[in-house]
Amino acid sequence: MLKLKLLTGQGLSWKVRLGQAIFLASLFLAWHLASALESSPFFPGPRLVLSTLLDGLFHSGWMVPHFLTTLLEVFVGYVWAVILGLSLGYLLGTNSLLFRAYEGPLLSLYAIPKVVLYPLFLAAFKLGSNAVIAFGAFHGLFPIAIYTWTAIRSMNPVHLKVARSLGLTSFDILRWVAIPATLPGIVVGLRLGFNLTLLGVILGEMFASRSGLGFLLMSFGGAYVPSRILAVVLCVFFVALVINGLLLTLERRVKSPFAMKGSRDVQGDAYS
Q1: How confident is the model at residue 79 (pLDDT cuts 50, 70, 90)?
Q2: Cα 108-110-114 angle, rounded to 5 deg
Q3: Which residues form a coiled coil (predicted)?
Q4: pTM of the entire structure?
Q5: CATH of 44-271, one of 2.40.30.110, 3.30.70.920, 3.40.50.80, 1.10.3720.10
Q6: Which residues of 17-33 are buried (b: 16+ CB within 10 A; e: fewer)?
């Protein structure tokens, strides 16, 4: 029984959590030692940064409105990234003509550093939250779309043909075949999409915003207040850590009952 648990990965969760805890503790220990050796006000240690973070969130509250602004912008941007990414991924995953025509251009657009396109977002949405949200959504939709169309086109077309031969309706095929087979890949895209949406929102706030954690980073960077700069960075890190932990848990729980193998082009034709 123990051997079976080890082979299937069961019973190892505590080891994974222990490894994660050791990794985080090692980072903070290295940070503490480096700041102690440097002993410079320009490189504060973790104790000062944590106290600054707690002060900003719970005592004086100077970080709270900016934190809430960033959370709202990330949430709205991520919702748009999910809607647009899933829609685009579905279209290219189920239509071979669209896939052949647009896969290359979309991958090329994905490879471009998005920050060079930010002036276009400012011109379209003006200065404010709308531009930041749109920029975040633009960052996040690409991995969601790519993983969605890859998951769809990697599904074995035999499963779809068997389902049709059994007389299943389109809704039944979607519910019992397509979604279980593609969901694991899509969830990976959703996790990566959140990370890039968060990145896009922070960048947008840094360059053209009057509120948000990105705005604080630029403000404290200009005034060079290291403890507050690192406190904001630590806040962003904790947000990303929590959300990624939830999405990773979902990712591990979602398992496909099918072997996701098969020709991409043949599958696309079979699905359409």
Answers
A1: very high
A2: 120
A3: none
A4: 0.81
A5: 1.10.3720.10
A6: eeeeeeeeeeeeeebee
